[in-house]
Amino acid sequence: MTRIGRFIRTHRLVITPLILFFLLTVGIFFFNLVIVDYIDGFRVMVKGREIGLIKNRGDVAARLAILKRRIETEKSIEIVFDGDLISFEPTEATLDRFTSMARLDEALRRNVTYKCKVWALRIANADSVYLRTDGEIDELIRRLKAAFIPRARSDERIENLQVKIREAYSAEKGLAYFEDIRDVDEAFRYVLWGAQKIEKYTIKPGDTFYLISQKYRLAFSDLLAANPDLDPQHLKAGDVVSLTVPKPLFNVEVSYRHVYEQIIFPPVVVNMDRNMLRTQLKVDEPGAQGRKRVYADTVRVNEREQSVNVVKEEILKNPLVRILRIGTQRTPDDILVAGAFLPAGVGVISDYFWTPRPGGRHHLGIDVAIPEGTAVHAYRGGTVTFAGWSPAGYGSLVTIEDENGTVYYYGHNSKLKVTVGQTVAAGEIISLSGNTGVSTGPHVHFEVHVDNKVTDPLKFLKGK
Fold first, then answer.
1. What is the model's pLDDT at position 35?
2. What is the dotted CATH code of the domain comprising 256-328?
3. 3 state DSSP class of 454
4. What is the model's pLDDT at position 48?
């Protein structure tokens, strides 16, 4: 004991605080155990997650009522909190552990979701568009119908106008999240153009990306982006184009009688004159346009014409006949070119050198229209360097090289009379004319290459 007492006295500065801390801890434990009461309460749960601890469940209802008024003031619309989000779990806790009202308000605002009381425009029994009031729905329907009413020019009339929406729809009260509510302008755009669908379009002769974009109301840049593998400058019939086109929720049908005036073009009488060149034309009577009033029953859907039925026409002014006189004589150029490799007195030039072709190409020779089967003569003598089918579009082709190295092409033949390596004389029959290869009618394609360069045959024949 003496030794223990001496140790305590020696280390009293360290031991004394430890003893006091121990006694204080034990005292607090027994104080809480015996004197401090645990209070019954509830854990507030949102989707299984605790957001606060309260004494009374009514505290949450009161704070939600305050939060509801605050949100309705901010959003200018009535709301309804989503049901079954909040649950309560009984518990016990000391007073210091309960959540303050300020923190509970913040937790509720952050975790509780709500819907707004709206008017739903239902299309085919499905909620499609949400607006704040039934008045906004009425305004939307009015604007949809008015958007497609045709405008008549000063010399036109619109009669028996009827406008209807093809789809069945109704306006009903409903609930929607705030971000799903649209104003009238947004709803108008969405109903007509918001939804989209993918379509395929097959290119036809004469189609361009610009015409397709106009037809389907697409941005030209969007059409290009949807078809990165197609070159708009080299479209071919049969190419398939991807379209992302608007899919309207509403189709507005407009039917009306369109009354308008239309030009009557004068009938044309053409007289052939052997005393004039075929390139000459004279107007003996200029004629005059007439006018008529047309009554056409028309149906359009979202601006696209569905049908036009002309029910009546009234002649306001009769047209006067236009009389033309056209020559039939061959031109000096016809005689020069055709006479170079065809029988005398036949053939007229149907296409000249260097006329444009699709894809930036040009016509490399001169074409002479001639009945199929006409004898084709060598312009100059020489050696046949090719006699057969050309994959380059010439069809059945003969080429002859003269002693100066000039090469002459005779294309689109129906039958060949020479073979490769054969020597032919000027004026000798080398083939019969035809319509083979890339051709739009019976003719002979005549092409001249001087020093391996293509040359205008007409200038070559004239010695220029």
1. 46
2. 2.20.230.10
3. strand
4. 85
Please state the domain extents for the chain. Answer: 2-34, 39-112, 196-246, 256-328, 331-461
* CATH architecture designation of domain 196-246: Roll (3.10)
pLDDT for 63-87, tens place per residue? Answer: 999 999 999 999 999 999 987 889 9
pTM (predicted TM-score): 0.57
Residue scoring higher pLDDT (5 or 328): 328
pLDDT digits (tens, 9 = 90+) for 236-262: 889 998 887 667 888 999 999 999 999
Q: How far apart are CA 358 and CA 393, in angstroms?
A: 14
The answer to whether 461 and 366 are in contact (CB under 8 A) is no
DSSP 59-74: HHHHHHHHHHHHHHHH
331-461: CATH architecture: Distorted Sandwich (2.70)
How many residues can be counted in the chain? Answer: 464
Distance of CA 84 to the CA centre of its chain: 46
Give the sign of the dihedral formed by CA 73, CA 79, CA 83, CA 85: negative
Which amino acid is residue 220, in one-letter code?
F
- 355-364: long-range contacts, CB 8 A cutoff, minimum separation 24: 358/234, 359/233, 359/234, 364/447, 364/454
**In this structure, what DSSP letter does residue 362 have?**
B
